[in-house]
Amino acid sequence: MLQYLVYNIEGNVRQLLSGQIQDIHHNKTISEQSCAVCMETKLLEEFETYYTNNCVHPNRTICNNCLYEYIRNIWNIGSTINCPECSIPLSHITIHEILLNHDDNALYERYEQFDLNRSLEQHPEFIWCAHGCGSGQLNEGAAMNKTVQCVNCHKLTCFTHRCPWHDGMTCEEYEMPRTNGQMHASERWINVNTKECPTCHSHIEKNEGCDHMTCWKCKYEFCWECLAPYSNIKRHGVYL
User: What count of Cα atoms within 13 Å lies in the side-chain half-sphere of residue 239?
Assistant: First the structure.
């Protein structure tokens, strides 16, 4: 009888332990997931935060770290940041949270500035300096005040045409058809002294310093001479 009880207890213990082991394996299976990008198995908490409420894919398959790297690389080439799984634009809140969670304060500040610039541009009286100094301002009474003096470089910009002020001509005269080969002085100045940002096509003036340029509007970094992405130059030493 004693042997039977010992055997029965041992059997129950083995059965209990076996069940616990199965539960442990089961919990491990459902609490981990493989990332579709880095292929590493990670805890489900790495996939819990949703990109945006507008996403149309059922579940996340990319871990938090790979999502951060995706945002960082996309932002460095100046593109719009969309969901990597369904191409829906990521919300500003989502991008802010991801950058802050990875302690990338530098990129966070750049994105904040970009977000602010985009909001300012929606104001009907806001204008950027057409001389490429990176300054912008509100032009109160824009309907009547066509000439805007930059608070930074003090040069004049035409509010109507968003170009350097056309000396000696009214806006109506500036819009008059020109003969073949004729070019306004303001257009000549832009062509000679500025280059377009490869991403947002804003005109940028290079006053001094090295060829590493940062667009005043979209914050895209590029080479002044060849317009190549500066991220490639920084990574390889030369543009490849």
Answer: 11
Residue 213 bridge partners (DSSP): 222
Contacts 24+ apart (CB under 8 A), 137-146: 146/171
Position 161, amino acid: H
CATH topology of domain 30-116: Herpes Virus-1 (3.30.40)
Residue 39 pLDDT: 92
Q: List b or e across 208-222, with b for residues whose CB sees 16 or more CB atoms inside 10 angstroms.
A: eeeeebebbbbbbbb
Domain map (residue ranges) of the chain: 30-116, 122-193, 197-240
Residue ranges of the chain with pLDDT lower than 50? 1-29, 180, 239-240
Residue 61: both structure tokens together: 């398959």
Q: Report pLDDT for 3.
A: 42
CB-based contacts of 210, cutoff 8 Å, min separation 6 = none
Predicted local distance difference test score (pLDDT) of residue 94: 83
